[in-house]
Design a protein that fits this description.
Rossmann fold, four-stranded parallel beta sheet
């Protein structure tokens, strides 16, 4: 083991992962942050960043490879960590080029490319809604004749619900593909399955699933993104629902080959009672989910990921801390006010408040799951009156 400090290069196309940076620095690592020029004024923890490096666009190759390769002429880098979903593939390409440990390009596709992840899941017997690529028109026609609408046309590498369009007829599909032109191969078509949607947030080290916590959305994220409303999720108590999605999540992460880090997976239970895999990301969930997990389990996913990376680079074993088994719930929405005041929501179970322009949000926690569920229902109705603003959904992430 070298006497030199571990050096971690963090990639951030958006303002995220502050707790990773802080935890890595507290462990004695040197932290380099490469982010976009227009994010330079975000409240990054400058005191915990050894070098703040700026580029116009972190996804543009070969510029990013040239820049990081040049950086390595004078700086040792032990690990590259993506702080946002859009950085997962970029980090993988850099690791491959620089021969650094971690997720490589082929495996990273399972966590970014919605078509690749469906094919990999299906190949390992994990149920997925019926889907098809858009490469072959004959195959598309066969699919649409066999699988009744509605369908959803999904971009393969956007995050969340961005760019997803619901299709009610073959004519809708062909019209949309014509609009997409040469970009249509970057989409896939799948059966729209209405139902209850869940997410599991996990930590994996040396290929072993060390932690997973199941949650359930009050409304599908796609519905919230497209129609507006309050985003609500809560920890699931032990039962048939939680056991079913935890089992699927464990099978999924084994099949996808995640070696180390955090994962955020989503599943749906259709009207037929079947649980289906929807998507997975090799990152900490967004929308303040790290604080939802922390409120219930007592550990921060970003901080634990940092501990894993530092331990691996030092040749040490990582040990996950003991967890709590409380319950938590989160509510967030776009707000009409620039800085909404949530102080009227003053129950003792409120443990976290979102501090972001034009966003209202808070997290409640309790040893009693019924209390959490009641508070979420009451607060969601009040949020709709007090704060809620609705904007048209984005087609692509803004740069």
């Amino acid at each position: 083991m070298s006497d030199q400090p571990v050096t971690i290069l963090c990639l951030a196309s958006y303002y995220k992962g502050v707790n990773f940076i802080n935890a890595a620095k507290a462990l004695g690592a040197r932290v380099l942050l490469l982010t976009r020029e227009n994010l330079a004024d975000e409240p990054w923890p400058r005191e915990n960043i050894d070098d703040l490096l700026l580029m116009p666009d972190l996804r543009k190759r070969p510029d990013i490879i040239y820049a990081v390769s040049y950086l390595m002429r004078g700086r040792k880098i032990d690990a590259i960590v993506p702080l946002d979903d859009y950085d997962v593939e970029t980090a993988a390409a850099l690791r491959e080029h620089l021969r650094l440990p971690g997720l490589g390009e082929s495996t990273a596709r399972y966590f970014r490319d919605k078509l690749a992840m469906r094919m990999q899941a299906a190949a390992h017997g994990i149920p997925v809604p019926p889907f098809t690529p858009t490469f072959s028109y004959d195959r598309l026609r066969e699919y649409m004749a066999r699988v009744p609408p509605p369908w959803v046309l999904k971009p393969r590498s956007e995050a969340g619900a961005m760019g997803i369009k619901k299709m009610n007829s073959a004519e809708d599909v062909w019209r949309r593909l014509d609009e997409l032109g040469d970009d249509q191969s970057f989409f896939h078509l799948e059966k729209f399955v209405p139902g209850e949607i869940y997410h599991v947030d996990s930590l994996v080290d040396e290929g072993k699933l060390l932690f997973s916590q199941p949650h359930k959305y009050a409304r599908p994220p796609m519905t919230v993104a497209h129609d507006g409303g309050v985003f609500v999720s809560r920890t699931l108590p032990d039962g048939d629902e939680s056991r079913a999605i935890l089992d699927l999540n464990a099978r999924l992460l084994r099949a996808f080959g995640l070696e180390r880090g955090a994962a955020h997976a989503e599943f749906i239970r259709g009207a037929d009672g079947q649980y289906y895999f929807l998507e997975v990301a090799a990152r900490v969930g967004g929308a303040n989910i790290e604080y939802l997990v922390e409120a219930a389990a007592g550990l921060n996913l970003w901080a634990e990921w940092a501990r894993m990376e530092v331990a691996y680079a030092r040749g040490e074993n990582y040990a996950i801390p003991a967890r709590r088994h409380d319950y938590a719930g989160i509510l967030t929405c776009l707000a009409r006010q620039e800085w909404p005041d949530t102080s009227a929501y003053d129950d003792p179970e409120v443990v976290y408040r979102v501090n972001k322009k034009h966003h209202a949000g808070l997290i409640v926690a309790s040893p009693d799951p019924g209390r959490v569920e009641w508070l979420l229902g009451s607060y969601a109705e009040r949020f709709g009156r007090d704060f809620l603003a609705v904007l048209p959904p984005l087609e692509k992430a803004p740069l």
